[in-house]
């Protein structure tokens, strides 16, 4: 099942929930092949609402397997175990939900498409309830006392009432998740689900062009009493920005600067880059799309009257072109369609620089050290005196004004040169953290080239502290950044 088919069924299912047709919604969800973690969570919520506890447990198991950091899924499976009177397993899942909160008072899932806030005090409330059912009244009282430290004003009453019941050794009501509140698909992707007619029967609301088949967006043209027999083309195309192209293959973006399009969309190419990626505008939004997914659309009047749309494209898209990671895209226009495609000069060399993050600059091969250091320091917004370049990662071959630049440029391969960069601020931090070893308490899979991947239990050498949320470290010959909350410091023996 394609991404668009899954998205369409997901949207149909939550629409059924909105009109309270829960049976139809569950049927649609169950028909989705290879559901993601959020869809599995939705299935579990609807099964739990139907009191089908075994099916709910299975759905939440699937959701957790696909996303082991989804705290709300552990919370819901804990509710399921509680209703099945499997209190020890219920306590275990509630503790896992609390661990996924990482000491925070709450998690707001709104940005992920779920209108719900999971509060730590509610998780502790349910832990105390399960402990009470097992007769562990003293543990339950300690748990509720801990919950008071996480309470918010809106959750104060429920904790106080639970504490009063515990003191009387009476059980209380469990805090449940509202099961009709589900994960919703990305609204921007849903907006792209309009159906396309490959036979060319586009509906035109208003146009001054006879038999107009244009399906994009353009301002309405001024109306006149009698339609001219041969309208002038510039009056039609004057408001259109960029060169019109029709999308031939579905494209699913992998980064934030790429744009989702489907076959039949009309996009306007602002500029085509040398790496076969095109900067386009579609429905007022700008982004990058592979140029080999597009076909030039002839917008002339004669072509419109004489040329029918071609047959639907093959289901197999062409090979996705490689992105030039870190390369400056300042020359790619965001709105000026008059700029021409720029090609690098024959003597231009791409210098890839390893820093807190990886980036690249381009300059003429054979440039002086002063030109090189000025280009890189300007990129980092730092003074040239605070930047040190090195030919290797261990800083033993640091460069300076006396460096033989001819030998440096001779190291370039295919017009690409790799350097390492250290700033004065980062050097001081590195010296302070020379012996600090961090151990991974969670596995982390990098999503960006500058990130460092590791698995739980790996020992990472701290290189620098980026900020309170991100560290830079070294592991197995790789250097990159990673979340600080995924690791903890190993105490040095003898301190």
- In total, the number of strands is 16
Strand order of the largest sheet: 6-5-4-3-7
Number of domains: 4
CATH architecture of the largest domain: Alpha Horseshoe
Radius of gyration: 30 Å
Q: Estimate the global geometry from the Cα principal axes.
A: flat
What kind of assembly state do the chains in view correspond to? single chain
Structural class: alpha+beta
What is the overall pLDDT average? 77
What amount of the residues lies in strands? 15-25%
Q: Please give the largest β-sheet.
A: 5 strands, antiparallel
CATH superfamily of the largest domain: Tetratricopeptide repeat domain
Please name the CATH topology of the largest domain: Serine Threonine Protein Phosphatase 5, Tetratricopeptide repeat
Q: What gap, in angstroms, lies between the N and C termini?
A: 57 Å
Share of helical residues: 25-40%
- Uncertain segments are 218-239, 300-313, 325-345, 427-433
Give the C-level CATH assignment of the largest domain.
Mainly Alpha
**Helix count, DSSP H or I runs of 4 or more residues:** 15
